[in-house]
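Researcher: Next entry: TetR family transcriptional regulator (Gordonia jinhuaensis).
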Amino acid sequence: MAVSTGKQTHDNAVVVPTRPTRADAARNYDKLVDAAQELFATDGIDVALDKVAAQAGVGIGTLYRHFPNRTALVLGTFRSYSERLNAQAWERLERGTAIDALTGLFEDYMSTAATKRGMKEAILAAVGADAEVFEESRAAGRALMAAIIDAGAREGTIRSDVEPGDLSRLTGGLSMTCVPEDSATERARLIGIVLAGLRP
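Model: Predicted structure:
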């Protein structure tokens, strides 16, 4: 899959961007990754970068200051996407139950599966399976799944032989089964089947 920006001066290195700490820069970064995620879903990973900038309400120069090439934008958007979904699951776990957190996580990943697949394919094509963002995502996922399992054990809602890797694979498996035509009802039915198998 092509990941070129069309600008040679920006294509020489793979950069894993980080969110700025300065408030105005952080706002622009967030607007860019939000716009990129939306357009990746509707237009594909190869969407014109000036369209991403326009959707975010910033100039193309601002985009390049944060993301020097298309690969950097995909990496930054994937990182933001993963962090956001994990943060939502942690919040559900703190406010509710293990099953609440797991149900929400499954639903989040299933409803955005096509976008995630496109980003992942672009990252694999550009920097391979050992990309830093994948390692970060896997580590954060293991910590989250371990916490969900611990909570489920205390609540008596998750089998004692379930491991963090099991939940990660189930999340990925559910995502891979999704197609854009799936309804929320169909996703909920599949999630219910998986949850039934996780109960003691």
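Model: Note for the record: The chain is about 70% helix and 0% strand.
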